[in-house]
Every structure is written in structure tokens, then in C-alpha cells.
Amino acid sequence: MLKKSAFWWSTLIIWMAVAIYWHVCHVKQNCEAIGLEIPTLFTNKESPIYSVENTPAQKQASIDPMALSFEPSKETPIENSGTALLDSIAGYLRNHPNQRLTIEGNYHTAEETGTASGHLGLARAKQIKARLTAMGVDSTVMIIAYDSSYTDVLPKEPIQDGIRFRYSTREALTEKDLATDERFTSIFNKIELYFPYASVNYIQTEENQKFLQAAKQYLTQAGSKKLILTGHTDNEDSAEWNLQLSIKRANAVKAKLMAMGIPAEKMTVVGKGETQPKASNSTLQGRRANRRVTLIVQ
């Protein structure tokens, strides 16, 4: 009996001690005042969060692949800086041919500008354009600009604002622009061929030739699918004439594909005339967009 009483008394005393501790330290927040230290198990204080810059074991910031960095007065980026950024930009421009990229080189006036171009910002922009060109970006879609920022003290850290990028959308003004903007993804996704005014000869591009070569390879094998060639026109003439012109354009493409080796029985020609415009016929640009033949394997 005495053992049981001692157990319960001990349990009560421990419970009271814990309750007093919790009330003083966590409710009243008076532990420090009476010289007690809150155990780690009960503390709600957060551990310090370290960034690359303040990690004790990592005093030097690593190279950021998403940021172009330059040493002061240097026109070439620090090695490996901005690699992921340039990869992303190159991929975007290759897949969006209607986009234009302005590369603006910048420098601080306290930097030395002894470059061949005479302007450090211009030299930096040229370096980045050359890199993107080497990565497969068409040089004609990139525009170079340059500027300067006033500073009277040479920066001690790598410069992060040596290059700025701006995108803009190019309006397709000519049939060639329209043809160039087309991208080959699959023979089961349509691609459009464009024609100069009153012509039956489509504008050839690297992308539509990729489509035709892939279609040839697929259609020369056994299978029931066919290449559908659908001709379209603007509304510049009568509906009857435009219907015939759309068929004539599609047949002209068919003849070229037969010469490439695609069997005639694997192609179907359809004429839509002016009945399915892609854009408004009220503008010159719209009429140019409507003079087309759509290709797709179905």
C-alpha cells in the first residue's frame, strides 16, 4: 500500500513540476529572467536560414547559371554564368520565330572601356549575340542596343546588370514572314505553305521541307493514312475563280510531292477557295495569310 501511495505521490509531484515549468517558461515567457534555459524539445525558435552568401561554410557565392555576370571592365561573361538562362532564351526563340530579342549591353561609367568597339556595353551585347547565334538562334531576330549607368566607384563585386533582354513580337508583313513562322512538330499536326499573290509556287522553308521529308518517309510505307492538301485563297476575285485557284495551288504542291517520291494515291486534294479565311481579308496582311495550302496526315 505504501509503495502504491509513493508512486502516485511521485507522479503528482512530477506533473506539478512540469505544469509549473510550462506556465513559467511558455505562458509567462519568464525562463530567462529566472535563469532557466528552454530545452530544444520545447523551443519554438527557428534555426537560422542560410543563403549562399551567409552560409558559414560557403563564404563565396557560386556561379548562378540563371544570371549573366561580368568582372568589372570585362566584356566576356564570367565562365559558366548565365548558361541556363541562355539555353532557355535560345530554346524560346527557336520555337517562336515571330519573336524578336533586344540584347542591351550596359556598363558602369567607372569601368574601363578600352574595347575594340569603343563601348563596353556594346561589346558585352555583341558577345551574348554571338553566343546565342552559336546555339542556333537566327542572328536576324536579335537586335543590339547599349547603355551606361553612372557610377564614380569601380564595382568590387561581379556585375549583374551588364546585359538586359527584351522580347517583342514581329508582325508578319510578307508571305515570307508567314512561311518562316511555321514550325514542323509532327506530320499529324498541320503545317501551312504560303504563296505570293496570284502564284501557285509555295515559299519553301527549312521547316516545311522537314514536314515533307517526314511525310514522304511515312507515306511510302504501308498504311491507310493520306496526306490531305487543302487549298485556300483570299477574296480578291470571284468565289468561283478563288475555288479553282485553291485547287490549282493544292495540285501544284501535290505535283512537287510526287516528284519527291510520294505516291499520288497517298494524297488527297481539297479546295476551299475563300470560304475559310485565317485572317481578315480587309487588310493586306490578312489577305497574305489567307493564300495558303494546309498539309496534314490523317
UniProtKB/TrEMBL annotation:
Q: Which GO terms describe its cellular component?
A: membrane
Q: Where is this region: Disordered?
A: 273-298
InterPro entries in the record? Bact_OuterMem_StrucFunc, OmpA-like, OmpA-like_sf
Which UniProt keywords are listed? Answer: Membrane, Transmembrane, Transmembrane helix
The record's Pfam families line, in alphabetical order, gives: OmpA
Q: Which residues cross the membrane?
A: 7-24
- The OmpA-like domain extends over 180-298
Q: Does the keyword Membrane apply?
A: yes
Any idea what this protein is called? OOP family OmpA-OmpF porin
What organism, scientifically named, is this protein from? Dyadobacter jejuensis
